[in-house]
Structure prediction request, 248 residues.
Amino acid sequence: MRIPHHLAIIMDGNGRWAEKRHLPRIIGHRKGVETVQQIVATCRKQGVKFLTLFAFSSENWGRPHDEVDALMRLLGTFLEKELSRLLEQGIRLRVIGETGRLPGQVLRILQEVMSQTEANDKMTLCLALSYGSRNEMVRAFRKIGDQIACGKVLPEQISEKMISETLDTNGIPDPDLLIRTSGETRISNFLLWQLAYTELYFSEKLWPEFTSSELLEAFADFSQRQRRFGLTGAQMEGEEITHQEGRH
Ligand code: IPE
Ligand code: IPE
Ligand code: MG
Prediction:
């Protein structure tokens, strides 16, 4: 089975999972954290190198205060509890998004966990927090704009590489596979630039019900696909043969 080098997940459906059971939405988010722990461990075991999880969007700030507060508290406790597990599994933590908007306490724990896991190299767990792709692009364009204004960069020097390197995901390869749970088939302002050639997979399962076996099903589906990047099927088969020959 082909394992994506970089897997990105839109973890959706916590609220509906709880509402179906007449429980407060936050119970769904708590249950969702358990899924995160299982999926992180499975990805690590399967050899995924980068796992990006959409945990809180720029737009999610507009939810009722109680839910936002509860989510921020949950995030803080998750990070505190997760540190030892990340160290045990050799996982490095990174974050993308407008993190300056996060509560100070969450930011401090985040920085602590990132610095303690910095040398880990088995897998990078990248949390998208207060993340919106358009917001990320605006911040990147401003940085490039500043460089142009002070004469360090000429407009004709702007390249795809420069843009990629100015985004929050600098140093992280583009995702190979994107999974969204809960049956919604939209991108919701996630990694718009980076998903240019990513394979998309939509699962009907709500995030708290998404198991490691569903993840493996997604990998099996991904394995069957031929990624053509604009070329022809025959060209890609040729490529594969050359790759294989190269290995012998
Ligand atoms: C995803 O679950 C988690 C976050 C956005 C924080 P939702 O909270 O969006 O759950 P639904 O979509 O309302 O069921
Ligand atoms: C996307 O889910 C954001 C996260 C999973 C964190 P939403 O539930 O916020 O997205 P929409 O509103 O259904 O598009
Ligand atoms: Mg949702």
Observations:
- The first strand starts at residue 6 and ends at 10.
